[in-house]
Each structure stands twice: as C-alpha cells, then as structure tokens.
Write a structure and sequence with these properties.
globular; about 200 residues; homodimer; four-stranded mixed sheet; alpha/beta; Rossmann fold
C-alpha cells in the first residue's frame, strides 16, 4: 500500500489557521491531525492532548535525547516539537497526516522528510492581518506589532512552500486546501492510481 | 499579470473524457477549451468550430507550413492538430486553457511547452472500459479490441503525466480535475498569490 501523505500548514497568527484546519479536517475525517508537544503553559481553554501535549522541560528534553521528535525548536525559552511515533505509524498505514508548524518547524520537516507538502496560509493583506489581530481581545498592542514584524520573515521564506493559499473568505481557503490534498493524491508519481485501477 | 495555465487531458476512448471535460468547464466558465483541427470527416452530430475545426488536407498542410499549429500528427491518413494562436492569446491574457489530446499530442505539448500540466483520465479497470465501449452503439466489435489494445500503449506512457484521475464515478472525476486546477493555481511557484496578496 502507498504511504500516506504528510501536509504541513503554516501561516501568521491571526490568519485563521485553526479555523481553516478545522474546516478541512471536518471534510477529510480520514486524515490525522498531528498534535505538537510544548513546554509552554496551557492558555485558558487549551486542553492537553487536544491543542498540545503539555510537557515539563525535563520530559521534553528526554524526548529530544531519545529521538522521539520529528522536529523541535526552542522559542523564547519554550520548547515546541512534533512527536515522531504517531506520525510515522499513520503514514505507514497509508493515512494522511496534517500538522500546523511555524516556518522554522516546516523547514525542519522539509529537511527530514523531503516528500512533505508545505502549504502557507496568507492573509489578504498586512492591513487585514492587523485588523484580525486587533480584533482578538487577548492580543496586546505590542504583541500585534511583533506578529506583524514576524510576517515579513514569513513572507521571506514563502519560497520554501509548495502552495500558498490566501485566506480571504474562509470557505474558499478550506476548499483550496482540500483541493490541494485531492490533487496531491492524484499526482501520477504518488502512485495511488495504481491501487484504484484494477487490472 | 501571471500567464494562464495550460492543462492537457488525455484518456482512452470510452473513459468518459468529454463528459468529465464538460462537467469541469461548467464549473470553470473562466477557462478556455481549445478546439482541435482535423482533416477527418465530421461524424453525425459533430459541429465545425465546436467539436473540431474541420479542414481540408490542403488547408491543414498550409497551417503546418505557416507554423500555425502548436502540435500536430498524422493518424491513419487523417491530420489532427492544435491551432496555436487562440491558445497563446488566452494564456498571455492570463486565462487558463484546457485541451483534449491523445498520448502523442500530449507528448508534443510537453516538449514544446514544458510548463503544461498533463492529466490522464483512466477507467476503473480494463473490463469496465470494455463494457463502456460495447455500450456505445456506434462501436464495432473490432474497433473495441483496437481501443483496448491502445489502452496498453497509453498505460505505458502514463509516467509522462503529472496527474492520473480514475473515472469511477463521474462527479468524483469532475471534482478531482477541478481540484487539480485549483491546486495548480495555489502552487507557490505559479505566483498567483502575489496578485491576491495586497501589500
């Protein structure tokens, strides 16, 4: 059986990544969403094992040592990483996996798994991203500026991505990400057609 | 403005290529269907300028001489080819073009326009193709055998294609071809996102 496909989705905070992801996963219930591990404290409403695996610093560093992470990074004193086992198991079984990573994590995945398919979710404009960030009650003004500055870094690394989807209207963005998944399944070199074409 | 994308769709007689094409064009009214030219006599119900441009042998050979064809071939004493001008004009205007070519024509297009996107439409099985061909009243038994033999040639050249879509259920096949078009538009290197992301 052909191996599952690995999709990585990145995009600035405030672009609506979670909403797009949920929409896509609603449509593609056959896919596995890979939950990241982190040592940062959970925010209100965040659930362990759903939003993140919340680990202690010691647990995380042991996971690094044991090679249990597909990629990891230290961001402002907090570790973030992707548990390897669940992802590899699903891919081996032929299931597609999707994960939500920042540009650094996506670059690591690209290095370790060159067959990964990288999708960048972009806001319609800088202005619109600012509006969306300011609309979030949780976001302090200073944090908004920091996120906008980071967008420039993200734009500079967009060439590493296979696809860019502009999240203008939510349904459009979901439809486009779902179309990318469908098209990648139909790529001749993925070989899925061999399983569908019965001699 | 970014140039339009060129899609080539191939597949054995009886696979349902025209039905899939019509379904896709119904959904993507912004696309241009490139009509082939031929010197073979029109069949019943075929309309000049809709199904084909029906040319005389002299007209066709003059078009070849004048470089007016993007690709052409002589098949069993009949010429088939793709008029260049309409296709180039649409692509230059940023419009996508789709054309229906056999494996030979698709290979010529791949040579002349490496950026073309090649899609092969496959029946679910050899048996099912045979059933569909025998279901056509117009098809003689001997012709069916010839078409099935040709399928083997087509299968041997499938590696030249970017995508393979198995036409099991019509709606699925239409949805998949439409998804391929959407995904290709979202490919980072096509640059369409630059037109959608306003600074």
């Amino acid at each position: 059986m052909a191996r599952g496909l690995l999709f990585v989705i990145s995009g600035p905070s405030g672009v609506g990544k979670n909403t797009v992801l949920n929409g896509v996963l609603e449509e593609r219930k056959d896919m596995f969403y890979s939950i990241s591990a982190t040592t940062r404290p959970p925010r209100r409403n965040e659930v362990n094992g759903k939003d993140y695996y919340f680990l202690t610093k010691e647990e995380f560093e042991k996971a690094i040592e044991n090679g249990e992470l597909l990629e990891w990074a230290l961001v402002y004193d907090n570790y973030y990483g992707t548990p390897r086992k669940a992802v590899e198991e699903r891919l081996d079984k032929g299931q597609h996996v999707i994960m939500d990573l920042d540009i650094q994590g996506a670059a690591h995945i690209r290095n370790n798994m060159p067959e990964a398919i990288l999708i960048f979710l972009l806001p319609p404009s800088r202005e619109e991203l600012k509006r969306r960030l300011l609309g979030r009650k949780s976001e302090a003004k200073a944090a908004v500026e920091k996120r906008l500055a980071y967008l420039e870094k993200e734009l500079a690394s967009i060439d590493r991505y296979d696809y860019v989807v502009v999240n203008d209207i939510l349904e459009n963005a979901c439809r486009k990400v779902a179309a990318i998944i469908t098209a990648e399944e139909a790529r001749a070199d993925r070989g899925y057609w061999r399983e569908q074409f019965l001699t």
